[in-house]
Amino acid sequence: MATKTDIAVIGASPAGLMAARYAALGGAKVTLFEQKEEIGKDPHPANSVYKGMMTITGEKVDSSYVVHTLKGMKLISPDGHKIKVKTEGYALDKGAFDRFYEKKALSEGVEIKTGTEVVNLRHKESGVVLKTASGNSETTERVKAKVVIIADGILSKNAQAAGLHTMKHPEDIAWGTELTIRAPGIGESDFAEYFVGSHAPGWKSTYLPRGADEAAIGVYVRHYGQDVSSFLDSWIARFKDLKNIADDEFEIIERKSSGDPIVTIPDQTYTDNIMVAGGAAGQSGIGYAMHAGQIAGKVGAMAIAKGDYSARMLSKYRSNWRSSLYTEHVFGRIGLETLRKMEDNEIDELFEVFEDEDVSSLIKGNTFNQGLSVLSLMLQKKPASLLKASAYFRNK
């Protein structure tokens, strides 16, 4: 005999926790399944969020999970040209962040089953039957749900089992490793730093101050497979040199690896009875994934209220997401694909255009208007720089 629930959420990711909470707020009976024994333990390496990303969720940043507040970020070209963006940001205790949103979901009546893996799902009449397994036990349980929201991360087997091709460009996942490090005063800076160029092909190497003597550094690379160790080793050596850190002052506290679907672009994110949100759907960034979860939860609750779990009904999830976030993802892909195809000297020349500008004023309004502002500044200061941006069309 199968246990019954209105909505089953797979994965306690930021998208999953928000989906569960908002589905419950909409009046649905919700059960969330998380494979880990404890939410917040061994969290995903994503470790920062900026105010603009959280604003779209309507959520207020809580001091309980913030370890260091940032004034903004610096984008740095291969030759060291810097673009400063003033925008409030936060280095996170990601475990505390996940537990904070776990409590919010519980407070809305979500049933959370940790240490429970969904090992199979299949469509049945008027719903989906999940097969779950708990811990090391060979005992399995059947759960019947009217709607399932899959939010179990970038390597989701459940999205595959549902027959959904969730990303348009899965080959473009950025694979990376983040290190938490300790060195004298390394966490005191007010700005995060993101370095682009051939040393981190396709994306970035990073420095995120976390207060006092702690920081996070990492590297994310596209088109070179999941093993980024050679790029990471080179970045560690370069980082020590940039920050004048002696070998005996540099300590690695923690190492985490994962993938970032930053430019993969969501594709098939729903079908009859099923929606996919967050990393599993190619929706990158903590704030953006949370908002996608909110949308999925609301649509799921609406489907329950109407008694309609068809793909046509659940398509509201895609249409609402596209109207809110699609442009952000497309512009992001164009920008990062352009950088990936540019030579280092071209990136340096492009950064020179913005080096003395307050680009904070260019990131206001919607993405389209931001893009027009950037193009306008390029034309005013250095028209030839637009030719560098045409690298996007190179066959590379």
Mean pLDDT: 91
Based on CA inertia axes, which overall geometry fits? Answer: globular
Low-confidence stretches: none
| Number of discrete domains | 3
CATH superfamily of the largest domain: FAD/NAD(P)-binding domain
What fraction, in percent, of the residue positions are helical? 25-40%
CATH topology of the largest domain: FAD/NAD(P)-binding domain
Q: What is the CATH C-level name of the largest domain?
A: Alpha Beta
Beta-strand portion reads: 25-35%
- Per DSSP, the total helix count is 10
Q: Class by helix and strand content? A: alpha/beta
Rg of Cα set: 22 Å
Order of helices and strands: EHEEHEEHEEEEHEEEEHEEEHHHHH
Distance, first to last CA = 55 Å
What's the count of strands?
16
Q: What does the main sheet amount to?
A: 8 strands, mixed
- CATH architecture descriptor text of the largest domain: 3-Layer(bba) Sandwich
Task: Offer a few descriptive terms.
alpha/beta, FAD/NAD(P)-binding domain, 3 domains, 8-stranded mixed β-sheet, D-Amino Acid Oxidase, Chain A, domain 2, 396 residues
Task: Describe the fold and architecture.
With 396 residues, the protein is an alpha/beta fold. The protein has 3 domains: 3-39 and 96-169 and 264-330, FAD/NAD(P)-binding domain (3-Layer(bba) Sandwich); 48-93 and 171-260, D-Amino Acid Oxidase, subunit A, domain 2 (D-Amino Acid Oxidase, Chain A, domain 2, 2-Layer Sandwich), CATH 3.30.9; 341-393, no CATH class. Strands 1, 2, 6, 7, 8, 9, 15 and 16 form an 8-stranded mixed sheet that branches. An 8-stranded mixed sheet has the order 3-5-4-11-12-13-10-14. Helix content is 34%, strand content 29%. The protein has 10 helices and 16 strands. GO terms for molecular function: FAD binding. This is Flavin-dependent dehydrogenase.
